[in-house]
Design goal:
Layout: E1 2-5, H1 11-23, H2 29-39, H3 45-48, E2 51-55, E3 62-71, E4 74-82, H4 91-105, E5 110-115, H5 120-125, E6 129-130, E7 139-144, H6 150-156, E8 161-164, H7 167-172, H8 193-210, E9 220-224, H9 233-241, E10 247-249, H10 259-264, H11 267-275, E11 280-282, H12 287-293, H13 307-318, E12 329-332, H14 335-347, E13 352-355, E14 365-368, H15 374-379, E15 386-390, H16 396-401, E16 405-412, E17 418-429, E18 432-438, H17 445-464, E19 469-478, E20 493-500, H18 505-520, E21 525-533, H19 540-556, E22 560-565, E23 575-582, H20 585-601
Parallel strand pairs: 4-5, 8-9, 8-11, 9-10
Antiparallel strand pairs: 1-2, 2-3, 3-4, 5-7, 6-7, 12-15, 13-14, 13-15, 16-17, 16-19, 17-18, 18-21, 19-20, 21-23, 22-23
Amino acid sequence: MRIRDARPDEARKLSGLVLRSKAHWGYDDAFLAACRAELTLSATDMTERRIVVAEDEESGAALGVASLEGEAPDGTLGLLFVEPRAIGLGVGRTLYAHVLDAARDEGFARLTIDSDPHAVGFYRALGARPVPGGAEPLSRLRVDLPPRASWVRAWTGGRRTVQLGNVAEFQAQFAAPSRPSGADRPSEGSRRPEDSSRAEAARRAGVHYSCLAALGSPYPAAVVLPGTVPKGWLELLCRRLAWESVELYDGLGTGPAGLTAEILDRPALVRHLRGLGLPFVPWGRTGATGELSGEPLPPGALRYESKRAANVLFHRLAAAHPGIAVPDQWPVASRRAAARLIVARARSGAGSVVKSEHGVGGSGTHVVTSLRRLPQVLRALPPGPLLVEEFLSADGPAAASTPRDLTYDGLVDAAGAVHDVGAARMDVAGTAYRGATVGPGAVPDGAAAVALRFGHDVGLRLAASGYRGWYDVDFVTAPADRSVPADGPGPPRLAPTEINLRLTGPSVAFMVKARLDETRGGDHLVRSLDHVPLGARLPDGELVAWLTALTADCARTGAVLVPSIPTAAFDPAPFIGVLLAARTDRCLDAAETLVRTAGADLGRLFTPGRSLPAGPRPVPRSCRPTGP
């Protein structure tokens, strides 16, 4: 579906669509005859009333019409009608979002809607609120249009974007093989089978994770992915997020050259993508993405992707941030040297974190608080060099009041200005990232303030180093500073652990929140679940049908489901990734329980004598939607 301006010669055709849409609700002939003059459009209406048309991209058939009327700052949503055969396909929601986007861009602060009674629930679910006025039988509603968040304007320039899922390509910049020495050096031809297995697992994980790049901005125009995604997945995203006409290029290959090199090898595709005249947003910047976008990557701009360099920067900044406790860190040349240091620290009662210098999502990072695990940990690490870090963990009231794993997200714009996006609560299993929650109350105010101040200061140093783009700073909650006199334990401190100079899982949650806040109103909570296990493997067709039904189930709880990772459902250990959005913690938790239960229930299909329950699942009364 695409949305375009209406043409004067379409007045008769669009008038017929409007009348058919009105008749869909069962009005009698006398009522429709009384409405006919009001609902008949003229050629001059097309421009004077700013009428737009949603049309099928393949057939060109008109699917719906809408209009933005009046002059800023107060306007009117004068028309919003959908062809009856297209009702329920997301056309109305996308037209509504299009009008809100246009109104915001033209300086409108609010819109009035005189709604047919049958459509009141639709508008209220999208954030409109009842107000006095309106002539019977119409109901009057109003929707406020707060300005677009400053970070969204800085990220996209107010435009749609071309998203590149170059996850593996970005990581390959830091994957130069180490040169171990002594007993840690493998003998000729002694490469372990598990190394190949890990490499293949990492490759597949990169393909799956790259799907998140589709959500790397609130409103993409084109998405380019290395792997092949299920047919119908992008349509689900478009319906939930009110996107129109998004181009998808998938299956471009997962070879060692990287996704952007694959694009550059296709001159026609390069000409087309550049011809869109839109910003390129890669998952992470590389030399190849600079060639494609015309924005070269300055030498050294990615230096703080190194956990060692980041730790040095954290120590340099910490003196100006009393709420920050930076863990000490020691570089070691080999696994053997790491083992000696960890053992020495353990004998003094200290825990350690051992990590590789680069890695995503917790890969290459292990916490060692018991020497019994040390041999297992060392076998899972590359030969070296490695980093051993002080293990900090909050206890007592501090641990109860603040989530253990937090992150700050921000961006450096083209001029070098730093924009704060927000703080998020991360879900980390051991050291493996599993998702994040953003929105009101996700992070306690005190901890969020500490994270935002420190994260912004980090951004200023990144800007000075030549970096431009998205970044985050990850934290764990550290013990309170017991050297400061206080009545009881002081407030928890945050320990920064790494900087990511790229998009991340939490960044995707911020993008979805921004889009839903703009198109549905309110201040959403958004939770990303990057790994929801499935009880059975699902081929692509069955997966999309199952996700469609699950989306409807979540809607009955008042939550929005956005499928984010659809490519792992047929893996040997199948899983999916989703984002969930709601306006309350309770509804968000209920939706997560529903999704996880539904995923596990798939295994019952193959249990003799048992079957999945038919029909929609019951919705807890406290979470049923009652309006915006």
